[in-house]
Amino acid sequence: MRIDTGQHLRMDQRMKLAPRMIQSMEILQMAQPALEERIEQELASNPTLEQVEPGSDRDKLLAEMEQAKRDDREGERELVVSDGDGSTGQADDFERLSNMSEQYGEAWASNTSEGGATEFRRAVNTGGERDAKMDAMANTAARGASLYDQLVDQWHLVDIDEPTLKLGEYLIGFVDADGYLRNPLQDLLDQAPAGTTAEQIEECIELLQEALEPTGLCARDFRECLLLQIDNKTYLEPDADLKTERLLVSDYLKDIEANRYPKIAKSTGLEIEAVQKAVHNLRQFHPHPGRLLATDTVRTITPDATIDYDDESDTYSVQLTHSRLPALQISAEYEKIAADKSEDKKTRDFIGTNLRNARWLIDAVRQRHATLLRVIGVVIEAQRDFFDQGPQALKPLPMTLVADQLGIHVATVSRAVSEKYLQTPRGIFPLRMFFSGGTETDQGDAMSWTAVQAKLKEVIDNEDKNKPWSDDALVDELKKHGIEIARRTVAKYRKQLNIPPARQRREY
């Protein structure tokens, strides 16, 4: 076999994503809090980008925003989308790329090459005025101490010898977020300081359980956690009669979880009412004591758009909630410097690069708003029954259908709905919820899977709790409402809705 090297010429046509295109797609996909952070970073790093101050002339800016809402389809279509056979759409894309090259000059060409991402210089505000962002950060509450730090602080208040203190700190390191010490004794012993015995670990765990608050911390399992709290309450309130509760937790915890009250009553000789009362009393104890000290941060949802209903016209309208986003404009002073030929070339090049970066960001944000408005407009039109009647009227809405209707790529729709939320008269919902598959009812009406889940929940809520329906019975009941799905689908949706099986839903 002969191996030769040589040079060959070949013509081909390729579509390539430039860094600027990727940035535009990222901005479209960003949730509003992430976009706010991105804009703040750009304001800090780009001296040519300014925030429109309150009270300034915003007429021009508002007019530009309105124009962005009326952008034509050409402005909405992605640069890499081909139409059908790929000829016409690609030709339009190349024409747009050419226009961008003329508009943004050499920086466009340099940024389309590999590794051409522009580096920004950070501008430092050395003025004497107060920084509103710094003031807001200073007034923000400090992050709470971790569970480990709080438990160690409590442990240091206990009057014990130094070796036990160190062993307790070691064991606290294994306490999980729920407050449990779930690791097997042998694992704790294998990693413990040299010379530590199993008896010392057991004794130290008992000391931790007695010393740490709230009661129930450092329990090995759920049963021990409840028993610790029951014993503590009995000690603090001698008149509290919790013998039945302690008996149920000690010997019948699995039966309680399975809702087998008759079996418990038969085994203990108690009445079912006494068993139910004891189980009700057990609900006063916390199953996860660690979360009483250190809770997970709850994510705040910021709606990206608000949908309002007009009684007079019987229509729904959408308005973007981008008021928290700072209004941006290009610095006129820096534009003059960039156009002044007498300035140093390096200075003009630096300013020119930042001016192009600022324009790109403003254009990308405007296009994001326009795309989001158009997509939500289609959602309102297609899901009118949902807004009128509720989740049970939600219809299947494929993203491809919306993309075809708007003349954009399906990937653009996917990015537009990613991590976006709508505030509607029926509550706040993720925008992606309105895009799902579904089935047809016996009457031939389209019904989304979300609507099927809503109907399943309604059926279960209205069942006879003394004789709750099994999954097979729920299949038959849904058929009466024109919905035909398999038993395994019912079981899957029931689990997704956190609805227990029939035997656990039964009330005695």
Automatic annotation (TrEMBL):
Domain of life: Bacteria
Compositional bias segments (type: Basic and acidic residues): 67-80
Cellular component GO terms, alphabetical: DNA-directed RNA polymerase complex
Domain RNA polymerase sigma factor 54 core-binding: 137-334
Record InterPro entries: RNA_pol_sigma_54, RNA_pol_sigma_54_core-bd, RNA_pol_sigma_54_DNA-bd, RpoN_core-bd_sf
The protein, known as: RNA polymerase sigma-54 factor
Any single GO BP term: DNA-templated transcription initiation
Region called Disordered, residue ranges: 67-92
